[in-house]
């Protein structure tokens, strides 16, 4: 394999992904579970080298650009937030991280903050910049579903405002650690149950507190299947996310960025509200965004 | 200590509590962490004997009456649910459990089920019967806050309907296992933050999904204190519980049954909605209910 021109890194709470980039695009990729949650401060450089050392050469300095929680206060090195409204990225704001290995020239992309209502993102700003490279002039809303789903209003190339929902984290906690786990073994899916729960939660979000335990009770006394229980929990949680995000999507142009299956689920949920959302793949957006980040604005 | 006439047992998911009862009332009590969650089927009898054997005598059979998850399908022995509307207890429905130790005569109180909307309770029916012994002729709503809070409409001595909210379990998961835990160390409490979050969640429950992550974001960028974050999380979750339970409490006579501090929190929350709720101590209600359960109805 030819040596890469630079290396793109997506470094979140639970994962580390690296892409070797050459003049024609991605030459190779690699991933590990060495997310921020697993690492002490002095564990970051060894974790990165375990992944990318095959792409380095003696006496040659390779540029690495990383986004995500790696730049948080609990991460490797803090890259202070930029404050919205602002462009998703600014090449001049990248933060250089001192490394022991002289072959690395590492810079981190700062996240974004919003002062009121208080909110923060790290990593999504890069995906948004990448999406804007694919959809130049896009004016509307990006939805990035996941552990902490983001709804992001973009206009004239700037992030105007955004809102986070803990939907993925709530689903994970409730389906694997709460009393509801007893009725949710396996990974089946009942689409009609999803749609009904979604519709119920969007139209009557105030009933959520009464809807959750019903999944357990119906499992005990009415034979609710695991496939139906999982789909209903997903529908309820995405439903209250959509209810809270209504000012973001109502009457707007919406594009989804994320994992394919999850984006498809959100697309169906939005379609039920009359919104036809585009879908963009997360990894491609991340790489395109990191590529923009390393390029000074004038040449973008 | 004189030997007890009978032994009252409250056996839930996380705890086991026993009370030695004599002609004048409670002679002694004992508790352990041997809840249903800790025990395999053959572990129940040894766990009970560890706690109550000082109260037993050779050649003497002692009556034991127990309520709670011990009677669930995953418990020691299944006591099938009774279906509402019905009285909270029926002495004739107690289920006798075979024991190896001949000194025990053990019976379990069945829980209650509601077919539509599906819901179940185990243990609370006993506390409700005990509360009705203290408040004869009570017509209104019992609220039993906790891991799984119950709202129970009672009329003419019968449980008419009920509704469960997973408020305590959600608080526990979010404050100790989600990303919000980083800003919630310690056990401080900011009452004004609680009241504001409560009021916000009751009046705009559809905003919940956007309110949770704000606790993390304000901790990161606005210096939100742990005391304020904990109180706000509690206010948000109790607020959406109250929003979902509005048909239960609005314009009703409400009595709270539960741990003193938690009941006081709910009483303040209800007071902010114009409801003056009575407070009844959980243990006394449990013992009074178990006492009723062992007495055939005609002598009640």
UniProtKB/TrEMBL annotation, chains A, B:
One GO process term, biological-process aspect: D-galactonate catabolic process
GO molecular function: 2-dehydro-3-deoxygalactonokinase activity
Keyword flag Transferase: yes
InterPro entries tied to this protein: DGOK (IPR007729), DGOK_C (IPR042257), DGOK_N (IPR042258)
Keyword entries, A-Z: Kinase, Transferase
Any Pfam family matching the protein: DGOK
Protein name as it appears in the record: 2-keto-3-deoxy-galactonokinase
Phylogenetic placement of the source organism: Bacteria, Pseudomonadati, Pseudomonadota, Alphaproteobacteria, Rhodobacterales
């Amino acid at each position: 394999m030819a040596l890469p021109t630079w290396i793109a890194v997506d470094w979140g709470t639970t994962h580390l992904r690296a892409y070797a980039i050459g003049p024609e695009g991605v030459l190779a990729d690699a991933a590990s579970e060495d997310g921020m949650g697993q690492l002490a401060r002095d564990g970051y450089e060894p974790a990165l080298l375990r992944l990318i050392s095959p792409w380095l050469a003696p006496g040659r300095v390779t540029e690495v650009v990383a986004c995500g929680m790696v730049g948080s206060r609990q991460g490797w090195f803090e890259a202070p937030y930029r404050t919205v409204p602002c462009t998703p990225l600014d090449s001049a704001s990248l933060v250089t991280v001192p490394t022991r290995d002289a072959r690395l020239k590492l810079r981190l992309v700062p996240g974004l903050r919003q002062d009121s209502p208080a909110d923060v993102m790290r990593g999504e700003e890069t995906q948004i910049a990448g999406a804007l490279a694919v959809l130049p002039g896009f004016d509307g809303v990006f939805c990035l579903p996941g552990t902490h789903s983001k709804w992001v209003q973009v206009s004239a190339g700037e992030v105007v405002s955004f809102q986070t929902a803990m939907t993925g984290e709530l689903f994970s906690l409730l389906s694997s650690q709460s009393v509801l786990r007893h009725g949710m073994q396996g990974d089946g899916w009942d689409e009609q149950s999803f749609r009904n729960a979604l519709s119920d939660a969007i139209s009557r979000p105030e009933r959520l507190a009464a809807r959750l335990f019903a999944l357990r009770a119906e499992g005990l006394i009415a034979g609710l299947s695991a496939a139906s229980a999982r789909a209903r929990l997903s529908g309820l949680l995405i439903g209250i996310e959509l209810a809270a995000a209504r000012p973001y999507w109502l009457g707007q142009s919406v594009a989804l960025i994320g994992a394919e299956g999850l984006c498809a689920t959100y697309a169906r949920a939005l379609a039920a509200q009359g919104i036809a959302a585009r879908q963009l793949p997360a990894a491609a957006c991340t790489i395109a965004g990191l590529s923009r980040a390393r390029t000074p604005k004038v040449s973008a």
